[in-house]
Amino acid sequence: MDHRERILAAMRHQPVDRVPTDMWATVEVQEALFDHFGIDAGWGEFSCGVGLMGGALTRSVAAIIELWDRLHIDGILAVAPPYVGPPLRREGGITYSEWGFGVRTQEYGRGEYAEQVVWPLAEAETIEDLEAYRWPDPDWYDYDAVREIALQCEGRAVAGGYSAPFFWHNMLRGLERSLMDPLVKPEFTRHLIWRVSDFFTEYHRRLFEAAGDLIDVTQVTDDFGSQHGLLISPRMFDAFYREPMQRGIDLARRYGIIVFHHDDGDCRPLLPRFVEMGVQVLNPIQWRCGDWDLAALKADFGQDLCFHGAVDNQLTLPFGTPDDVRNEVRMLIDTLASDGTGFIIGPCHNLQIVSPIENIVALYEAATEYGAG
Prior knowledge:
Blueprint: H1 3-11, H2 27-37, E1 50-52, H3 61-71, E2 76-79, E3 90-91, E4 94-96, E5 102-108, E6 111-118, H4 127-132, H5 146-150, E7 157-163, H6 165-173, H7 175-184, H8 186-211, E8 217-220, E9 225-226, E10 229-230, H9 234-254, E11 258-262, H10 271-277, E12 281-283, H11 294-301, E13 306-311, H12 316-319, H13 322-336, E14 343-347, H14 357-370
Helix pairs in contact: 2-3, 6-7, 6-8, 7-8, 8-9, 13-14
């Protein structure tokens, strides 16, 4: 099987010759791996519009594929239509997106993150305030360019699109306000979420019309889980977020595109709903968050969900030994791929610079060796 065939077969619960692998990684980890393997990545070769499903590429598509080949990573590349709308602002060290989200680079010792510091609708109080906001326009993207962008990913599975109504609510209002909104401003909340959903629906319809035959998987995703339970109750999910999320799932499946759902933390109580709604791939399986019995997870949901990720990056990858990593990889394959398919192994979120290179290499060596059965 080639890399794309292996990934898609696992997602479709078909036989695979070995358990497929994927990589999500921060910029610092990508650079460290290029250095470790002596890959001449070349700063001038960056290909606009292509990234990892978890994070942007630091260099060229060719460089990341060379790295993946060294580590036997099948991988999923993500494509997006270039932004061609009104010029974006940068003021006082803050960069603003087309949505008005303002982010500032924050350094954390050996790495840095773009941390949100401006929430554009934080002070909105009424539906009139929402209507006065400059919502982004689906016209601001060059969908016709996506086909050429996707062709750079030949031989790898391709993801396109990202719909996340709850997460966008968080980023528009700030986390605290967005968690209170459904309780204290229910009509305001519905109006805001449906404005977000209307944008996502039209954006993705145009994306899929332009390049749906080259897109294998799309994210209809969100972050409902925390370290020890849900951020919102299942009742609130049903009342405010389920229908917009269903809208995104139904659109993707009309185009024959696999639905990938990323949900950090302990989202276990929502899994029956996700299956009913048509989610096909669940990421990242942060099984140290909350109460995840992995054998029961496979038994209860393994016929419907392909599991993606799962190698722990809170304890095992940063603080364990290479043998700890190898043992965990074997345990995960034995449980989440117990029927020989339905599992794509990788880190349970972006690899962080605190994870030693030898642990990252051990992850993929063990997955390649043990995953072949």
